Amino acid sequence: MNIILLGPPGAGKGTQAQKLVDGRNMVQLSTGDMLREAKTSGTEMGKKVAAIMDAGELVTDEIVIGLIEEKLDGPAGGGFIFDGFPRTLAQADALGDLLARKGQTLDHVIELQVNDDVLVDRIVNRAKEAVAAGGTARADDNEESLKVRLMEYYKKTSPLIGYYYAKGDLTGVDGLAAIDAVEASIAAVLDA
Ligand code: AP5
């Protein structure tokens, strides 16, 4: 079973993906994590995307589609969770083509429905917690970058809600509920 977790920054995509990895042996494909790893390890691609990510903008479709394509040839466990991908209509089309070429299907697109005030609070808290724990906050977890991330979401990613609705793949879940309740709602969709 292959699924997409769709939602704005801070909606809980990564949190819920981890629950699905633990509970269902699914494989999380987070383009954000892959790009951060490339940034940290200082690869050419990492250097190229660092400033774009820190500012909260989207990196090119070509880069992220390439990253996902590589992973689709790897172990699939209980299925792939696409976390933070696709983020543009071009990425969504590319994912459909890639899955079709590999004889795979997309089974569910789960939209984590939240509101902007909560997102800002969650991101600000995450940054504070990281610092309090002696680490550093994500370079894009600041007020300025968050504004850009939200704008990128509304301009480029939110059209995917209509795209997947029209394909009949979309289910909305209340992302404002407690983490366990969101997990239960997603489980109900996957087990239906
Ligand atoms: P990415 O890493 O994907 O970041 P994001 O979409 O901004 O998402 P976040 O990780 O901030 O939020 P999340 O929805 O995963 O929420 P989380 O579970 O962490 O992308 C980063 C950057 O990489 C992009 O800006 C772009 O530059 C680039 N990029 C990545 N993919 C790309 C693509 N496909 N195309 C182009 N560029 C791309 O939760 C957030 C916080 O809230 C946590 O502290 C968590 O504990 C808390 N929380 C979660 N759920 C709940 C709940 N139900 N109740 C209370 N608190 C909760």
How does this model look, in words?
There is one protein chain. This protein has helices at 13-24, 31-41, 44-55, 61-72, 89-101, 116-132, 143-157, 159-167, 179-191, and strands at 3-6, 27-30, 80-83, 108-113, 170-174. The chain is of the alpha/beta class. Strands 2-3-1-4-5 form a 5-stranded parallel beta sheet, with helices on both faces. Helix 2 (31-41) packs across helix 3 and helix 4 (61-72) packs parallel to helix 5 (89-101). The model has no long low-confidence stretch (mean pLDDT 95).
Q: Name the ligand types.
A: BIS(adenosine)-5'-pentaphosphate
Order of helices and strands: EHEHHHEHEHHHEH
Largest sheet, strands/sense/barrel: 5 strands, parallel
Count the strands?
5
Question: Which tags fit this structure?
Answer:
192 residues; alpha/beta; five-stranded parallel beta sheet; 59% helix; binds BIS(adenosine)-5'-pentaphosphate
Put the structure in a nutshell.
This protein is an alpha/beta fold and 192 residues long. 59% of the residues lie in helices and 12% in strands. It is built from nine helices and five strands, in the order βαβαααβαβαααβα.
Explain the layout of strands and helices:
Layout: E1 3-6, H1 13-24, E2 27-30, H2 31-41, H3 44-55, H4 61-72, E3 80-83, H5 89-101, E4 108-113, H6 116-132, H7 143-157, H8 159-167, E5 170-174, H9 179-191
Parallel strand pairs: 1-3, 1-4, 2-3, 4-5
Helix pairs in contact: 2-3, 4-5
The structure holds BIS(adenosine)-5'-pentaphosphate (AP5).
